[in-house]
Amino acid sequence: MSNNSKNKEKDNDLERKVVQIRRVTKVVKGGKKLSFRAVVIIGNEKGQVAVGVGKAADVMGAVKKGVADGKKHLLDIPLTKSNSIPHIINGRAGAAKIIMRPSAPGTGVIAGGSVRTVLELAGVQNILAKQLGSNNPLNNARATIDALKNLKTLSSAAKDRDLSVEHFYSR
């Protein structure tokens, strides 16, 4: 493990970062039962990314469960040649809203919080992102995943509309 403020480890070819660890309680007959909730983002920096949430009595167990949950929900995203996204997109989860815009090569990842972590682990290198509405790391990460899930390439948009790709270039 590195001494990074956000926990970062390699697993197969997937990298993982722990975004948040929270101590949560459940009130039971005998008092309060403590457990930990870990929000983990996993990705291979080549177009695959996921957000996982795990809950356990200890932190390591919660992180393991979070990684396992993330592996079940891996998402492939389309990247352009400049390692950006194909078009402007919005994402939403709970009260969190995300606006993402592709940017020119050399711009870098301009985003904050868990949005930045999701985009970096997805392999996006040039993007502008803004989070609106909520500062909750879990909902912002889920809103980012929601936006990435709805991305379309030119060829997939042409296929959905039963048109040729050349039709989009002729004006």
Uncertain spans, ≥5 residues at pLDDT below 50?
A: 1-5
First CA to last CA: what distance?
54 Å
DSSP strand (E) fraction? 35-45%
- Secondary-structure-based class equals alpha+beta
Secondary-structure element string: EEEEHEEEEHEHHH
Read across the widest sheet, the strand sequence of neighbours is 1-2-3-4-5
Total beta-strand segments:
9
Mind describing the biggest β-sheet? 5 strands, antiparallel
Report the principal-axis shape: elongated
Mean pLDDT: 89
Helix proportion: 25-40%
Count of DSSP H/I helices: 5
Computed Rg: 18 Å
List keywords for this structure.
disordered N terminus, 171 residues, 5-stranded antiparallel β-sheet, single chain, alpha+beta, elongated, 5 helices
Secondary-structure blueprint:
Elements: E1 8-11, E2 14-28, E3 31-43, E4 48-56, H1 59-72, E5 75-76, E6 89-93, E7 96-102, E8 109-110, H2 113-122, E9 127-132, H3 137-149, H4 154-160, H5 165-169
Parallel strand pairs: 8-9
Antiparallel strand pairs: 1-2, 2-3, 3-4, 4-5, 6-7, 7-9
What does this 3D model show about the protein?
By secondary structure, the protein is of the alpha+beta class. Helix content is 29%, strand content 37%. It is built from 5 helices and 9 strands, in the order E-E-E-E-H-E-E-E-E-H-E-H-H-H. It has helices at 59-72, 113-122, 137-149, 154-160, 165-169; strands at 8-11, 14-28, 31-43, 48-56, 75-76, 89-93, 96-102, 109-110, 127-132. A 5-stranded antiparallel sheet has the order 1-2-3-4-5. The protein has a 4-stranded mixed sheet with strand order 6-7-9-8. Helix 2 (113-122) packs across helix 3. The longest helix is centred in the middle third of the chain and has 14 residues, at 59-72. The protein is elongated. The model is unreliable at 1-5 (pLDDT under 50).
